[in-house]
């Protein structure tokens, strides 16, 4: 039975999984699960992921949740190129180190900025809480500093010379911030160059899957100009 990926294109870890399938020519069925329409709360979806979160995967009768676990399953099943999740124990350990850190740092702090600046004002129809945004940005700044100085250093990719699951998981989180026309790396030219490097390794699907984010950014720029 076919592999299916249940996703919402607005979800950062969903985009990581979709991009991985695409760049590795893994054929899969697309199961759109739109959070804003409540698809993730439907009984049918909760049979796959009782937590009601995307991405989720089904391969025959086998179901799997958590983007990191899904990506590692796909690496093993499809024997994808070694650079994604190296077989060398030391190189693999560095990818695992980033992935263990990712959820409570990159993801948590990017989400906080995105929620404060985009989602909450949209859902509640109110202005951005500037105090909360400043707090969120301060926390994000600590993460950026570690990302740049502890992980990236002078390497082209987070864990070495080639792209890995670490880069694939990280970049969609930063792209989410661009929806508010925010430069995710205002003082970090090395991270800016890294993001462009990762993007170019994932084209043309990268731009396709980020089209809703690009559109939000254009709308934000237009609205800001109109309000001047
Ligand atoms: N740790 C999970 C996070 C999954 C997650 O939080 N997904 C969000 C979208 S990005 C979601 O489905 N939210 C719906 C909800 O919480 O109701 C992963 O990496 O897959």
Describe the SSE topology:
Elements: E1 3-7, H1 12-23, E2 29-32, H2 43-46, E3 56-59, E4 62-65, H3 67-78, H4 89-124, H5 130-152, H6 165-177, H7 189-201, H8 205-209, H9 211-226
Parallel strand pairs: 1-2
Antiparallel strand pairs: 1-3, 3-4
The chain binds glutathione.
Fold and architecture overview:
By secondary structure, the protein is of the alpha+beta class. The protein folds into two domains: 3-80, Glutaredoxin (3-Layer(aba) Sandwich), CATH 3.40.30.10; 84-203 and 217-226, Glutathione S-transferase Yfyf (Class Pi), Chain A, domain 2 (Up-down Bundle). 59% of the residues lie in helices and 7% in strands. It has nine helices and four strands, in the order βαβαββααααααα. The chain has helices spanning 12-23, 43-46, 67-78, 89-124, 130-152, 165-177, 189-201, 205-209, 211-226, and strands spanning 3-7, 29-32, 56-59, 62-65. The chain has a four-stranded mixed beta sheet with strand order 2-1-3-4, covered by helices on one side. Strand 1 (3-7), helix 1 and strand 2 form a beta-alpha-beta unit. It is globular. The relative contact order is 0.12.
């Amino acid at each position: 039975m076919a592999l299916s990926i249940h996703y919402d294109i607005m979800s950062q870890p969903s985009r990581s999984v979709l991009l991985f399938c695409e760049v590795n020519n893994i054929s899969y069925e697309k199961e759109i699960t739109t959070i804003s329409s409540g698809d993730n709360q439907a009984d049918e979806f909760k049979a796959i992921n009782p937590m009601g979160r995307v991405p989720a995967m089904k391969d025959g009768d086998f179901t799997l949740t958590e983007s990191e676990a899904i990506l590692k399953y796909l690496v093993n099943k499809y024997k994808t190129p070694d650079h994604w999740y190296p077989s060398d124990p030391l190189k693999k350990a560095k990818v695992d180190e980033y992935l263990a850190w990712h959820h409570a740092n990159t993801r948590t702090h990017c989400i906080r900025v995105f929620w404060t600046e985009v989602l909450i004002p949209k859902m509640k129809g109110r202005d951005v809480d500037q105090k909360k945004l400043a707090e969120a940005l301060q926390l994000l700044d600590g993460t950026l500093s570690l990302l740049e100085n502890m992980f990236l250093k002078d390497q082209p990719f987070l864990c070495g010379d080639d792209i890995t699951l670490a880069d694939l998981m990280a970049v969609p989180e930063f792209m989410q911030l661009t929806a508010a026309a925010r430069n995710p790396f205002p003082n970090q030219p090395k991270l800016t160059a890294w993001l462009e490097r990762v993007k170019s390794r994932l084209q043309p699907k990268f731009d396709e899957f980020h089209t809703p984010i690009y559109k939000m950014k254009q709308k934000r720029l237009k609205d800001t100009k109109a309000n001047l």
